[in-house]
Amino acid sequence: MNIYNDYLNEIEERKGQGLNPKPIDGAELLSEIIAQIKDLDNADREDSLKFFIYNIVPGTTPAAAVKATFLKEVILGESVVKEITPAFAFELLSHMKGGPSIEVLLDLALGNDAAIATEAAKVLKMQFFLYEADTARLEVAFNNGSEIAKEILESYAKAEFFTKLQEVVEEIKVVTYVAGEGDISTDLLSPGNQAHSRSDRELHGKCLISPEAQNEIQALQAQHPDKSVMLIAEKGTMGVGSSRMSGVNNVALWTGKKASPYVPFINIAPIVAGTNGISPIFLTTVDVTGGIGLDLKNWVKVLDEKGNAVRNESGDVVLEEAYSVATGTVLTINTKTKKLYNGEKELIDISKAFTPQKMEFIKAGGSYAIVFGKKLQTFASKTLGVDIVPVFAPSKEVSIEGQGLTAVEKIFNKNAVGSTPGKVLHAGSDVRVEVNIVGSQDTTGLMTSQELESMAATVISPIVDGAYQSGCHTASVWDNKSKANIPRLMKFMNDFGLITARDPKGEYLAMTDVIHKVLNDITVDEWAIIIGGDSHTRMSKGVAFGADSGTVALALATGEASMPIPESVKVTFKGDMKSYMDFRDVVHATQSQMLKQFGGENVFQGRIIEVHLGTLTADQAFTFTDWTAEMKAKASICISEDETLIESLMIAKRRIQIMIDKGMDNAKQVLKGLIAIADKRIADIRSGEKPALTPDANAKYYAEVEIDLDLVEEPMIADPDVNNADVSKRYTHDTIRPLSFYGGVKKVDLGFVGSCMVHKGDLKILSQMLKNIDEQYGKVEFKAPLVVAPPTYNIVDELKAEGDWEVLQKYSGFEFDDNAPKGVARTGYENILYLERPGCNLCMGNQEKAEKGDTVMATSTRLFQGRVVEDSEGKKGESLLSSTPVVVLSTILGRTPTMEEYKAAVKGINLTQFAPSHKLLVM
After folding, report:
1. Backbone φ/ψ region at 663: left (φ over 0), alpha (ψ -120 to 50), beta
2. Mean pLDDT for all residues in the chain
3. Residues 133-148: tens digit of each pLDDT
4. Average pLDDT in the 697-725 region?
5. What pLDDT does residue 243 have?
6. Model confidence over 429-481: pLDDT tens digits?
7. In a 10 Å sphere around its CB, with 0-12 CB exposed, 13-18 middle and 19+ buried, how is residue 509 labelled?
């Protein structure tokens, strides 16, 4: 009885935190609980019954298998429990989401007891998480003349698992809660520093926004028990920065509705909104839970008599409130008229939130049901030899005669499944596509594994070319939380079929490389579609989409993803890049010049950025594609010259071979297969059979942006603008300032060079700068700490071979040791150079952080409030984003440099240079 007693002790500990008993996923504990249920005199029998009925994790967990088996015994009369009748046992099975429960239901439906078979069939008809082993049993039974199997297949062919669901209600009453003014990062909804608790949904729910906000939400619910609370980003976009399923889970936990009375702490149907809508990747996550995301447009531009936008003294567009959504406002969402109302007054058209496809997600309680349902209907119809009944909303197919294809349109057409054969599809089409590469990261990975269990998946789809489970977000500190979570995650993913950063058997050393960098290396075909569990899944080969843990799980399980083909914005370059500038400055200038060209409108938001870099290899181009997440783009595509692409693929091959040499390949030799794909791609380019991907000359774009390199005369810095009087203008990534703005006097408390926005060249720049400063001043002295975290071990190895790592060691005061990784996060820093373990480090904000109130100069992508640095009582923390040379010099000086100081420091250094391609990169 030790395990059960341990569970009771854990329950007492959780009571002290205001938490309920943790959901049970272990077989051994549940077996003890069942034994106590069978013992009518057991003192813990009543509690054991409650645990069994209400507190078991469904799907393919070990506990789910034990529960399903016991329910089968009850139905067959092999075990008698007065509180669980056979009818109730079927009810419980119906909520278990597949896996062992489907196996049990098939056993019963295809068994010899006709009455039991009929009841089992009724439950099966409403299930949709069936896999090949399940459908194969039905097919065999049908071919052998089983009437029950035929009946079930006929139900699936009619999609009764969907059609018999309750229709979406016409009117949804909501009461507003303004969660913040300006863009709301998913860090507010699910902070990175609480990543360790994401798989414990109730515990993690405690970190939503703030305890005060949680109390206010509860007060609204008490005041309006018949309404749903709608979380709002006032004067901003909801859910920017990350594709965080835990953020949506937290919102749903506080404001949604229970998915099942028998499944603990899984809520669905949250309602979120923003003045500027919902971030695309976050909206996908909302769809997973059958929620609603609204673009409110409740603040509009003030126009003059000529129709031009009025601007204030700062040059910002003046906005006026079209209607109020202040906290406590009661509104009505009408799903039939697709309008938002305040009483009888119509406020705005919200039809984009209620497309036929989204209405299906809402009705079914989430997008998974539709994805699996369509596959199940297709299987049943084929098995029965009947035509597919048009039940689901037809995919929207946009085909414009005479119009060429953008790069993303070409990729989607190549990878599309289920669309009209031979039909060319343009932007706006709804498409199911095969996914080539999938990435899972470590702070969302446990949730991905839970999602895989809940959808009853046990092995990776054979469609996927390669998949990787990272260890980068927990790389900085190997603490007790990591020791408890990461090995368990790596074992699950390794067993599932992924290449894993850590070997569960301990046969190769841990690799904490940044996930996006690894995915960039294992993407060996620029026609690939990549899905990754991080918003910065933005490859410089192929088209990559950052996704929530659920969408990652779906891609792993099915090898597919569904989405509309996005519109594209074409970015080209002219002029010459000055020798003292770094390519990171071009990246920032792109955002700045785009906003100026379009009067403050971010034409990148929600679209593909098709960037014609041409001459930059994948490593260097990644600096641009990675930043497109902060430009609020849905994804990006890099257009390369043939020879540049070949060079990038050769680099990728070498790095994949290193992974193989480390012993990281699996039984299916996935990594070896990726090298073969790369070889084939290189051969096709060289032969001219299939040149590098380019758009058609007559492709149509939402907008075309031309960046003038001649205008980029100073290093450019993305500033969080923490003291802007307009709160909505803070932490947006849109405030891009030249170095001279700071006058060489802004104090810098800490510098950070690392994470995904740097490549090997950046570390070589650091090495060269340190040597230059030593020669110039006779020593290297830091007036602010400099934290350096290389993105990958491969880069460290290459720097060692080329002599640069030795230079960094010479000037460092700390160097990581994989044999003795840090067990505790830093709480303070000395004015030295820290050579940290490869990985995300400060950029993630879940382990290492700057000291509160610091001004940080970083190569990172994150300037969100509280991410890299939290506020102190007397000062707001700032994370300014810039190029490597600016960061390094700022730590040497302890302040921002002047232009003269900057030019002197980088003289003779080979910065990351870029020259626009002279070739026309179109077909």
Report:
1. left
2. 93
3. 899 999 999 999 999 9
4. 95
5. 63
6. 988 899 999 999 998 888 899 889 888 888 999 999 999 999 999 999 998 88
7. middle
* pLDDT score of 285: 87
Residue 564 forms beta bridges with which residues? 430
Please report, as a single letter, which amino acid is at residue 718: A
Rg (CA), the chain: 28
Alpha carbon of residue 478 to chain centroid: 23
Q: How far apart are CA 33 and CA 807, in angstroms?
A: 61
Strand 608-614 vs strand 635-640: parallel, antiparallel, or unpaired? parallel
Q: Is the pLDDT of residue 718 over 60?
A: yes
Rounded to whole angstroms, the Cα distance separating 318 from 312 reads: 6
Task: In whole angstroms, give the CA distance from residue 212 to residue 768.
Answer: 50
- What residues are paired with 614 via a beta bridge? 640
Q: How many residues does the chain have?
A: 923
In a 10 Å sphere around its CB, with 0-12 CB exposed, 13-18 middle and 19+ buried, how is residue 918 labelled? exposed
545 within 8 A of 635, measured Cβ to Cβ = yes
Residue type, 710: D
Give CA–CA dist 322/276, Å, rounded: 13
Q: How far is residue 435's CA from residue 555's CA, in Å, rounded to a whole number?
A: 7
Dihedral sign (CA 776, 777, 782, 787): positive
The predicted model scores a pTM of: 0.84
d(CA 736, CA 730): 12
Q: Where are the alpha helices (DSSP H) in 779-915?
A: 793-802, 804-811, 884-893, 899-906
User: With 60 as the cut, is the pLDDT of residue 273 above it?
Assistant: yes
Q: Quick one: which of 419, 378, 745 has its CA closest to 564?
A: 419
Q: How many CB atoms within 10 Å of residue 869? A: 28
